[in-house]
Here is the input.
Amino acid sequence: MSDLVKRSLSLSGHRTSVALEPEFWTVLDMIATTRQQSFASLVAALDATRPPERPLASALRVAALMHLQKRLDGAG
Here is the structure.
């Protein structure tokens, strides 16, 4: 498994950082590009809709997996 890569950003007016595997960052960047939005706005939207008990890193991983699953479902 790849080493974690940490990215820092502002959410709701405060700085935070998230560490994910590079493969997840690649998919999240792809989602932002597909939606024609900035990476920060994508993460802010995902943060705003995640259940409070789910950590942000987990919510980002799930969003990446769901995006890929939709693409696979559409390809079949």
Summary: Residues 23-75 form one domain. Residues 56-75 form the longest helix (20 residues).
